[in-house]
Specification:
The chain is an alpha/beta fold and about 210 residues long. The protein has 8 helices and 6 strands. Strands 1-2-3-4-5-6 form a 6-stranded parallel sheet.
């Protein structure tokens, strides 16, 4: 699915240097410094991913797990400046190299969809953990491929009929017009066998 891994520059700073609490405090006191550091990290990521121009790979996709961009952790204004702008810089550099960014959003992403739409058409894959997929399809459907949002909790604790109904909802909402990959909200580790069978049966037979 991917032949490379990267991170949003904001997440590099938060995951490896400042921590979640440090990043919350820094957003209040050191916004311009965060912006400068994230721009530097973006340039470093672009340099580290140059192998895509030379390596003979079966597919060219880079996986980005977005750790601290979810609704509520960072304001919309700061998300644009500190999170999205440096991340987009890396994404556009990859697109210029013929590489598809595989953006794996973590947490709720309802308020970020407009920014995610600001990319070249047909060049990005977005996976969602928690979002209104109807809105995601409306805003991103003509721009990027979308995926995800089948709750893993539903697979583990839900009833068969609920799984069937949710699968049909995702197909009805996201499949028209293409640009959709069916997937879970996150990594599936435990599930009821009957729910897994119901999911595959629905995907095979529902039209």
């Amino acid at each position: 699915m991917a032949t490379g891994t990267s991170q949003a520059p904001f997440d590099i700073l938060g995951d490896f240097f400042r921590g979640a609490v440090g990043m919350l405090e820094d957003q209040l006191e050191y916004e311009d410094e965060i912006a400068a550091v994230c721009d530097m990290f973006a340039d470093q990521q672009i340099q580290a991913l140059q192998y895509f121009q030379y390596a003979p790979l079966p597919v060219k996709r880079v996986f980005f797990p977005l750790h601290k961009g979810m609704d509520g952790f960072i304001s919309p204004k700061q998300y644009e400046k500190l999170y999205w702008k440096p991340l987009k810089k890396v994404m556009l550099a990859l697109i210029d190299m013929g590489v598809t960014p595989f953006i794996y959003t973590e947490g709720r992403y309802e308020t970020r969809l407009e920014q995610l739409a600001d990319v070249p058409k047909g060049k990005v894959l977005y996976h969602f953990e928690t979002v209104d997929m109807k809105e995601a399809k409306r805003i991103l459907g003509n721009v990027a491929c979308i995926s995800g949002n089948l709750p893993i909790a539903l697979m583990e604790f839900g009833k068969k009929a609920q799984v069937v109904a949710y699968c049909k909802y995702l197909i009805d909402t996201c499949a028209p017009g293409g640009g959709y990959i069916f997937d879970f909200s996150g990594s599936l580790e435990n599930t009821k066998q009957e729910n897994l069978d119901a999911m595959f049966d629905t995907l095979d037979t529902y039209k």
